[in-house]
Prior knowledge:
The complex is a heterodimer. By secondary structure, chain A is mostly helical. In chain A, 74% of the residues lie in helices and 3% in strands. Chain A has one domain (4-277): ABC transporter involved in vitamin B12 uptake, BtuC (Orthogonal Bundle), CATH 1.10.3470. Chain A contains eleven helices and two strands, in the order ααααββααααααα. A two-stranded antiparallel sheet of chain A has the order 1-2. Chain B is mostly helical. Chain B has a domain at 27-252. At the A-B interface, helix 3, helix 4, helix 9 and helix 11 of A face helix 5, helix 11 and helix 13 of B.
Amino acid sequence: MSNLLDLIVAGLATxxxxxxxxxxxxxxxxxxxxxxxxxxxxxxxxxxxxxxVMHLGVPFWLAVLxxxxxxxxxxxxxxxLLLVDPMLRHGxxxxxxxxxxxxxxxxxxxxxxxxAEASPFPSIVPAGDISVLGRAISLQSLGVLAVAILAVIxxxxxxxxxxxxxxxxxAAQNPTVARIIGVPVERMILLTFLINxxxxxxxxxxxxxxxxxxxxxxxxxxxxxxxxxIVGGFNQVRGAIxxxxxxxxxxxxxxxxxxxxxxAAVPMVLLILMILFRPQGLLxxxxxxxx
Amino acid sequence: MTxxxxxxxxxxxxxxxAGLIIIPMNFxxxxxxxxxxxxxxxxxxxxxxxxxxxxxxxSLAQGAFVGIGAxxxxxxxxxxxxxxxxxxxxxxxxxxxGWLLGYPALRVQHxxxxxxxxxxxxxxxxVFRNESWLTNGIYGISNxxxxxxxxxPTRKPLPFYYLCLGSLGLVTLAMWWLIRSPWGRxxxxxxxxxxxxxxxxxxxxxxxxxxxxxxxxxxxxxxVLYAPxxxxxxxxxxxxxxxxxLLMMVIVGGxxxxxxxxxxxxxxxxxxEWLRFAEGYYLMLYAAAVIVLxxxxxxxxxxxxxxxxxxxxxxxxxxxxxxxxxxxEAAQ
Lengths: 291, 332
């Protein structure tokens, strides 16, 4: 029973990271119908950018800042201008395929220019345990959870409480009407791309100390985040958060109680059940089908 | 299409087929292996092209069906079955599984379907890896025999390549017939507008399932050839990446075009080999090439050709019209 608490805390910590990645994924889908199959690689890359800056002798915190800025520039602005904008008019599928190619490109570039080996990455949270209710819980899990929760609270406050957030939501829900009432839709779409880039950089910063920086680490993470987004509701930021936490916990519990071999299958089964019985997701709205 | 251009096309087809038969005679073992792989992947991509390009359903499970086919062939032939009966078995299995997998397609659309099939891909991979009693787990199955076809052994690379090429030829003919049959027309009606198709009396349910099942069977057939080609089967080649690669082949070649998968598979299988001179950079170049192509032409390579031909046809037509007009004016 006490073991269960540990598993849930660890699950919440990884789940919170999935949530960060999944939120960016739903934001892009909402504003520009982009399914980014390179989202996992987007999480992998910022860690390497930060490592590269650190190799120049820059102190850790500054390197993190530069890494986040570079990520916003490359994965936000660059991604939108160079790939999404020219492809958007072609529809969802060619764009999705192009992001698959992008994933291959990013993976290979990191492997080629940086290293094919896993590199250690400094943690923003000190190692060690603290005792909560008589149980030892790793500081790292708690730190990750805290940072991710802060980021999510910050984002939802931005979206729901500020005029900028309302404009963003309007642009996502009905671009035509939003344009009529004077929302700068283009700028709002660019903003969601930048937010996605910052979220993946943050996720990178949180997850890389746990799993090391490796060129191939994006695959599993990207897939988990997609599943989280689907389970929670493809068109809902709240849903992506709930989905991320749920997948994180289920994944950890499955590894402990079902079987380590079929651990990866449990979220998949959850996904299939969800799609069959509640395709709009846990918290999602049903999208109207157009003829 | 005029009689002239049809003749030209037939001549081109004969030249390409003759080239595919004659030129590889001088290839080394590795060259033949790559070319056989191209033929096998083309078959799998043709199956996906049917599901995606003709029936409009996005599937990320084609790689899993190649895996089912490969494991089916590997397990049965190492137990002494002839390859042809393994093929029959795999066709039945893939048809049934593809049919079942099509059911979610009836409930959900577009990207949701992609994720159901993605989940299936992952599950299939886990079964290949974990059910050691059947698949020998991560160690894989080795010493897969190559078959004898009408008494001819195909143990050497060249005869086996001809077996792959011949199978590709048969599948192509079957596909050619299928998309021109009422079935194919129903598939296309389904892609263009499912609701209108239904109102025309097409049983959308049955045809969606059918497109899925037939597409899956082609994946299985590719797998049955894959096992004796590599003579070794393990779970790694059949992970999600293969499904994504096959999807990329179909889109890059030109989805909905009969010969799109041929080109797509050529680019996915052969281009990285040709780019080997670039060493570590070759997959990067490949990725960049795919992105540039898709930005320029989302309907793939055949899309470019199609647009070029149709613009030439309009030009020719307007030239004819102008000529007729001036003749008419001169007569007046």
